[in-house]
Design brief:
Layout: H1 2-30, H2 32-54, E1 56-61, E2 69-73, H3 78-85, E3 91-96, H4 105-111, E4 115-117, H5 123-132, E5 142-145, H6 163-171, E6 175-180, E7 196-202, H7 212-233
Parallel strand pairs: 1-7, 2-5, 2-6, 3-4, 3-5
Antiparallel strand pairs: 6-7
Helix pairs in contact: 1-2, 6-7
Length: 245
């Protein structure tokens, strides 16, 4: 029964995406403000419908970042993106290049200034990322990067890449780490969604100006420690890799 409810939830989620895009896309092309409004409206709808249809509630903990800031977030599924976008004012993501060409997602991603990179190019992708940060139109927004570079299932260890540390040093801005447990309920692939409480928690900011190695260590330790705590709170019974102290 939960699988059937999950299927109906997923179908309506993409149906509503298409309907909202039809309404907001012309407005977003006219004025960027509407792109942000449409994204927030859709994300809040998914949060509401997830609770109503499959028993998946969601919560934002910590102080929501505002102004010019770098957000380094744990990424476990599509749902953590939606939770973040439901509350921050001017989101902008570092994302894989393929998403830029997807219907609906690509249009809104371009309108809010997301930075697309070709992950297959290795170090050249870092240059693409830095080039994208030079667009002054989006200087006052919140730049979100996933330091591990992709979705990571609960219990899986994946090294943190250098991109977030380079952005932090180059852009000279504070960083807000963000932890999550959404992968316990909403997997990377498949239809099944589980009931429970999905959480994104914004952690204490790391100030600008830290040495790159120190920043990278603190960012990874804080994100992984908090995410492990949230996953255990959610009832995840598997083994979780412990971060370096």
């Amino acid at each position: 029964m939960q699988w059937l409810r999950s299927l109906l939830f997923v179908l309506q989620m993409y149906f509503v995406m298409a309907c909202m895009a039809a309404f907001y896309a012309p407005l977003a092309l006219y004025r960027r403000h509407w792109a942000y409004s449409g994204i927030r409206a859709y994300c809040r709808w998914v949060r509401f419908s997830a609770s109503a249809m499959i028993g998946l509630d969601s919560e934002i903990r910590g102080k929501v970042p505002v102004g010019r800031v770098l957000i380094c977030a744990k990424h476990q599924s599509f749902f953590d993106i939606l939770l973040i976008c439901s509350v921050i004012e001017r989101p902008r993501f570092v994302m894989k290049q393929q998403l830029r060409h997807m219907p609906i997602i690509g249009l809104f991603a371009r309108r809010i200034g997301c930075i697309s990179i070709d992950r297959s190019k290795g170090r050249l992708a870092v240059g693409q990322m830095l080039e994208g940060t030079r667009d002054g139109e989006f200087a006052d927004g919140q730049l979100v990067i996933y330091p591990q570079g992709t979705r990571v299932a609960p219990g899986v260890h994946l090294p943190y890449k250098v991109g977030a540390s380079i952005l932090y040093e180059t852009m000279d801005m504070a960083c807000v780490p963000a932890a999550t447990n959404v992968g316990v309920f909403w997997p990377r692939h498949g239809i099944m969604r589980k009931p429970g409480m999905a959480i994104v928690e914004f952690l204490d900011p790391l100030p600008e100006g830290l040495p790159q190695a120190r920043f990278r260590h603190l960012m990874e330790r804080n994100i992984e420690t908090a995410s492990n705590r949230l996953m255990r709170e959610a009832g995840f019974g598997g083994e979780l890799p412990e971060p370096k102290v």
